[in-house]
Amino acid sequence: MFFIAQKCPNCKIRGSRVQNDTMMHHVKDISRMGKAIYFYCATPECDTIYYSDGEIFTDRMINKEIGFKKNSSPQSAICFCYNYLKTELYEPSVVKKINIRIENYGSRCDLRSPSGKCCLKYIKKIQKEESQD
């Protein structure tokens, strides 16, 4: 029987599938990558970034800090295409600034973002959660 892990082995929350090309852009030692199907763990409190059935890549195994993780520094990235930092996360204009850049120059979220998806969804979610506190 063939089984694919979809929940993070550490936090037990379902991750999203990520392409191997995206991982190759972020993992320090790509020789550790197998031919498995990998998932991205977006849980802020979890230090797992990528996982598959039996394999985990933690934040220490990634080239650049991910600003959406709780243990990341203020200088970690939240937008990997345009280098916006965690220190800018709560600026009301950051979403507008990123949108303008995407409109003018495009984006490569599929490779540059560790999730393989646009950062704006994460930024908006965090800003909304913060405004409700």
Describe this structure in words.
The structure is a single chain. The protein is α+β, with helices and mostly antiparallel strands. The protein has one domain (16-132). It has helices at residues 20-26, 94-105, 109-112, 120-132; strands at 16-18, 38-40, 48-52, 55-58, 77-79, 84-85. Strands 1-2-3-4 form a four-stranded antiparallel β-sheet. A two-stranded antiparallel sheet has the order 5-6. A hairpin with a 7-residue loop joins strand 2 and strand 3. The radius of gyration is 15 Å and the shape is globular.
Topology:
Elements: E1 16-18, H1 20-26, E2 38-40, E3 48-52, E4 55-58, E5 77-79, E6 84-85, H2 94-105, H3 109-112, H4 120-132
Antiparallel strand pairs: 1-2, 2-3, 3-4, 5-6
Largest sheet: 4 strands, antiparallel
Strands across the major sheet, in which order? Answer: 1-2-3-4
Residue share in helix: 25-40%
Mean pLDDT across residues: 91
Shape field: globular
* Element-by-element helix/strand order: EHEEEEEHHH
β-sheet strand percentage: 15-25%
Point out poorly predicted stretches. none
Distance between the termini: 46 Å
Quaternary structure type: single chain
Global Rg: 15 Å
